[in-house]
Amino acid sequence: MQLVRLIYVSVMTEACDTTALQRILEVSRTKNTARKITGVLCYDPSFFLQCLEGPKDTVNALYGDIVRDVRHKDVTLLEYVTVEEREFGAWSMAFVHASTIDKQVLEKHTQGLRFDPFELSSEQANDFLVDVAHHTSRHMAAQR
What we know:
Elements: E1 3-12, H1 18-35, E2 38-43, E3 47-55, H2 56-68, E4 72-82, E5 94-97, H3 103-110, H4 122-143
Parallel strand pairs: 2-5
Antiparallel strand pairs: 1-3, 1-4, 2-3
């Protein structure tokens, strides 16, 4: 099985309200486990920044669905690579609202500027999402 990592950014449309986001979370966590897809989704009221990892054909099909989804526009592919192992293997889909991102993590990746995921290179986007996921994992473990 060829394993790939895909990172994209998109603009959230008016069709993506709180109810739609909750539905995305529910469906993603259920379906992604069955499809062997892992990843992380970072969002705020204006954008999605998402990493998907999994079998090539499955990730390709899911990305096609995302591109056609009316809750997104301006879907921009930042990275598509074959990988040996997953960065987000523990997450069927981590959901992180931008407002909950640790200030030090955000500062590290923005140098004090406004966060604009469309400005990230593929390497910067991956590094950012890895840092966000690790911080979220530590925060969740501390709450247990």
